[in-house]
Amino acid sequence: MAGTRTDTVPRQRVETGARGSAERYREGGAARDPGGRTDIAPGVIEKAAARAVREVEGAGAVRARPARARTSGDVVLLRLRISVRYPRAAREVAARVREHVKDRVEWMTGRTVHHIDIEIAELVR
């Protein structure tokens, strides 16, 4: 049914100005949302957080459920279970993991990481 027009289907918005809607939206103009929304499941955030833990030297994610995420709007709360390589300082590794995971999850999802709880579950050689 290509090319069929009805009165019940909303019409596509047409840009009338010289500037795009994204530019006006950034400037705080009256442009509308470009349409639709993006939902990111907590499981996706958990996987991103677990992968970010492995990127920190001296830290690793435990095998069983290394990350849990709770979301509320644009805010993310994380709980991580990590392993620390012996003989590194556990507090120092945890601080680096917290900072790195926060940066990565915020960059990847566009949401704000408000709080990260870290449990050091293993000490490995």
Spell out the helices and strands N to C: HHEEEHE
CATH superfamily of the domain at 42-123: Cation efflux protein, cytoplasmic domain
- Overall pLDDT metric: 84
Taking the sheet with the most strands, its summary is: 4 strands, mixed
**CATH architectural arrangement of the domain at 42-123:** 2-Layer Sandwich
Given helix and strand content, the structural type is: alpha+beta
Share in helix: 25-40%
What best-fitting shape do the alpha-carbon axes yield? elongated
CATH topology of the domain at 42-123: Alpha-Beta Plaits
Number of helices: 3
Biased composition (Basic and acidic residues): 8-36
Region (Disordered): 1-40
Protein name: Putative alkaline shock family protein YloU
Identify the notable features of this structure and list them briefly:
125 residues; alpha+beta
Compile the SSE list and pairings.
Blueprint: H1 21-26, H2 42-54, E1 59-61, E2 67-72, E3 75-85, H3 90-109, E4 112-124
Parallel strand pairs: 3-4
Antiparallel strand pairs: 1-3, 2-3
Region (Disordered): 1-40
Biased composition (Basic and acidic residues): 8-36
Protein name: Putative alkaline shock family protein YloU
Question: How is this structure best described in words?
Answer:
The structure is a single chain. The mean pLDDT is about 85. Helix 2 crosses helix 3 (about 90-110). Helix content is about 30%, strand content about 25%. The protein is α+β, with helices and mostly antiparallel strands. It is elongated. It has helices at about 20-25, 40-55, 90-110, and strands at about 60, 65-70, 75-85, 110-125. Strands 1, 2, 3 and 4 form a four-stranded mixed sheet that branches. It has a domain at about 40-125: Cation efflux protein, cytoplasmic domain (Alpha-Beta Plaits, 2-Layer Sandwich). This is Putative alkaline shock family protein YloU.
